[in-house]
């Protein structure tokens, strides 16, 4: 139920302005939601490609690991497992939404350690796992952005529904109440003025002794 309002003309003007702003807000939120949905589906394609690249990189990395273990000693293979992969995290503003962007450094598979003491197959496996790590970061980036944008779409949609289904109908109800009240007051004022006018005409007629048919009708005689 709409909250009680003062049925005055100033309140009516304020409520009409409030409705206009609410309608503008709905339009802006819908435009934002549509833009985010477009971005979401574009990211879905990127996410699918990243997933495919991850699967391919995982197969290549673990196959290379098996080959490395066959051609090199377990100690040599395990000695290359502690190499970290640094990532760069930035925050993009997407239609006012803060969305993190995670990126791994680009490279041709170079290794951050000395290859002395390990075989070629082990080096190939280490490079393959570096590529696998980059693929994991790419998947994390797209899926994290998808999650953030998806949450914002839901939030924006809830705001649109709240305006369209609650706020605007409530304002319309308040406007109708104020308008009906003002119309009723105006009608009562017109009726009162007619009665006053009729009473004045009747008194004037009684004072002058001239009572016309029109005056009698106006006075309710």
Automatic annotation (TrEMBL):
Any one Gene Ontology molecular-function term assigned to this protein's record: proton-transporting ATP synthase activity, rotational mechanism
Similarity annotation: Belongs to the V-ATPase D subunit family.
Described function: Produces ATP from ADP in the presence of a proton gradient across the membrane.
The record's listing under PANTHER family reads:
V-TYPE ATP SYNTHASE SUBUNIT D
- One biological process term in Gene Ontology: proton motive force-driven plasma membrane ATP synthesis
Source domain of life is Bacteria
> Cross-referenced HAMAP family, in alphabetical order?
ATP_synth_D_arch
The entry's protein name is V-type ATP synthase subunit D
| Residue ranges of coiled coil | 139-166
Q: Name one Pfam family in it.
A: ATP-synt_D
Instruction: Name the UniProt key words of this record, in alphabetical order.
Output: ATP synthesis, Coiled coil, Hydrogen ion transport, Ion transport, Transport
Extract the InterPro entries matched here: V_ATPase_D (IPR002699)
The reply on keyword Transport is yes
